[in-house]
Amino acid sequence: MTDGITPDDAERHRRKMAKRREVQQAKVARATREKGLLMVHTGNGKGKSTAAFGLILRAVGHGLRVGLVQFIKGTWPTGEQEALKRLYDLVDHRVMGEGFTWDTQDLERDMKAARAAWDTALAMMADPAYGLVVLDELNVALRYGYLPVEEVVAALAARRDGLHVLVTGRNAKPELVGAADLVTEMTAVKHPFQAGIKAQKGIEF
Predict the structure, then answer these.
(1) Neighbouring residues of 159: CB distance < 8 A, sequence distance ≥ 6
(2) What pTM was estimated for this model as a whole?
(3) How would you classify residue 156: left for phi > 0, otherwise alpha for psi between -120 and 50, otherwise beta?
(4) Burial status of residue 104 (CB atoms within 10 A of its CB: 0-12, 13-18, 19 or more)
(5) For residue 94, which phi and psi values (nearest 5 degrees)?
(6) Which residue in 81, 34, 181, 64 sits closest to 132, CA to CA?
C-alpha cells in the first residue's frame, strides 16, 4: 500500500466514507423544495463582498441576470468594476455609495445616497429579468440608520418568488438575520493591515 497505508487502514477509510455518503445522500433526498433565497454575508472578517462576487460569477455561469447595488463603496476604482464591465450583458452594476462613512461625515448626504441605492435595489427586485440581486454593504447602511431596518426587511421578505438576494456588510441586524435563509459570518483571525501592510490592488480592491 502507499506510504504505509495497510489494508485495514484502507478498509476502515472505505467504510467511513461509505457511511458519510449514505448520510449525505439522505440529506440530499430530503431537500426537495426550490425557492429564492435571502442570504447574508456578515462578520468582521475580510471576504464578505469577495464571496458575493464569487456568487455573481456562479449565477452568470448559469445564465442568470444579476443586479449589483453597492451602498457604501464608491470612491476607489476596483478590480471588480473592471471585470464586471466584461459581463455587461448579464450583470448590471450600480455603484451608488459615496465612499467610506468616515470620509463623508455628512449624515444627510449619506442618507440620501442610501435611499437612492435602495430605490434602485427595489426596482431590480421587482424586475423579473433578474435572478440574483446583490446588495453590497447594505448592512452598513442599516447599522448607521441610513435606512429603516423594518422597511428593508419587509421588502426583502415580500420579494417575488424565485428571486435570490444577497446582503453583505458587517453587523447584520438581528431582524435581517432572522428573516434570512442563509447567513455566513466571516471571522477575523489575522489581517495584513494589522501589520502595517497597505490595501493592495487585486486583493482588497
Answers:
(1) 36, 38, 125, 165
(2) 0.86
(3) alpha
(4) middle
(5) -120, 110
(6) 64
188 three-class SS: coil
Q: Does the domain made of 35-195 have the CATH classification 3.90.870.30? A: no
Each residue's pLDDT, cut to its tens digit, for the chain (205 residues) gives 567 899 999 999 999 999 999 999 988 888 788 899 999 999 999 999 999 999 999 999 999 999 999 998 766 678 888 999 999 999 999 998 765 555 566 889 999 999 999 999 999 999 999 999 999 999 999 999 999 999 999 999 999 999 999 999 999 999 999 999 999 999 999 988 888 999 888 888 8
Q: Which residues contact 87 (CB under 8 A, 6 or more apart)?
A: 60
d(CA 98, CA 65): 26
Sequence letter at residue 47: G
Residue ranges of domains in the chain:
1-32, 35-195
User: Can you say whether residue 75 is alpha, beta or left, with left for phi > 0 and alpha for psi between -120 and 50 degrees?
Assistant: alpha
- Residue 42 DSSP SS3: strand
In the chain the first and final C-alpha atoms are separated, in Å, by: 48
